[in-house]
Amino acid sequence: MYISPSQKTILSLLADGNFHSGTELAKAINISRSGIWKHIQSLDELGLAYIAVSGKGYRLDKSLQLLDEAEILSYVDDKAKTLIQLFELFDRIHSTNTHLVQQATQNAPSGSICLTEQQTNGRGRRGRNWVSPFGKNIYLSILWRFQAGPMAISGLSLVIGVAVIRALKYHFPNTFQLKWPNDIYLAGKKLGGILVEVSGESDGPCAAVIGLGLNISLSQTEAATITQAWTDLADIAGGRQINRNQLVGSLLSHLLQILAEFEECGIPSYLDEWRTYDCLKDKPGTLYIGERRYEGIVKGIDDQGLLLLARNDGSIQAYASGEVSFSS
Fold first, then answer.
1. Which structural domain range is residue 285 located in?
2. Residues 142-178: b if buried by 16+ CB within 10 A, e if exposed
3. pLDDT, tens digit, 9 for 90 and up, residues 186-224
4. What is the pLDDT of residues 142-197, one digit of tens each?
5. Would you call 324 exposed, middle or buried from its count of C-beta atoms within 10 A (0-12, 13-18, 19+)?
């Protein structure tokens, strides 16, 4: 669904969660009052609930804070801001990662940023759908080009996790954790995920598209298709509204700084910090690689960022890829 300028204007007015009369909305976009109703009904297609009361007008069931490029950039530190070469903000898009993967083939510059209010085909690991309601969470991707080949940046998703935790700790006092290789956890529940897609020759250079999905506010209805324990930041904010623009600005500051350093520093500079966030260490886990599954006790990561799993036969094996889950 394309969001027209008129629809965007109405949505911007309704975002505060207060009632706005049909007359006010009609005047804002220069149409008749009767024409407003069609625009209001279009909110259904965005998954936004609204209330219509005769004599009072219309309001959203819950207020929204829409993303704004100028406000986001005002929260990005000066050094990181110089690394942004292209900034795209969409109302709706199929997937921020898919968009930048396509842009990478068209010579889009390193430091390209893509954000959206909603993904119609958001992707997680192993082809899963990423639940992406309109205007509530963060869907962010960054294109970064490296001179080295894909093997040289194999620990990138772990390092990105460190950057995300740093940004979250700046705003919240809670204990955030990481689940190998790329999930953000809070109190034993998934808060967000990282998806890194790399293309290029084996000996370099290569392009990496780093995607981040972070739950800010999810309803039980919206999360009905999620098959694992999940949480969102609204649950820990105690009713305080979370400034999405400020949080995106902080995330970009930390992510861009780490991306700029990573090719030179590599994963060793971040291993000790990653290990302090590890939520799997010394716990029973099941590792899935394709159709195979391996059970054991997770023993953290080695110095290359590989998962260490103590098997039932007493051996400790290192794994470069796969998906690990908590065992009961």
1. 280-326
2. bbbbbeebbebbbbbbbbbbbbbbbbbeeeeeeebbb
3. 999 999 999 999 999 888 899 999 999 999 988 777 777
4. 999 999 888 889 899 999 999 999 999 999 988 999 999 999 999 999 999 999 99
5. buried
Whether 14 and 86 map to the same domain: the answer is no
Percent of the chain with pLDDT over 90: 70
Last residue of a domain, one of 24, 39, 60: 60
Q: What is the CATH number of the domain that holds 46?
A: 1.10.10.10
The predicted model scores a pTM of 0.92
Same domain, 56 and 112: no
**pLDDT for 86-119, tens place per residue?**
999 999 999 999 999 999 999 999 999 999 999 9
Q: Do 112 and 259 fall into the same domain?
A: yes
Q: Domain with 187 in it: what CATH number?
A: 3.30.930.10
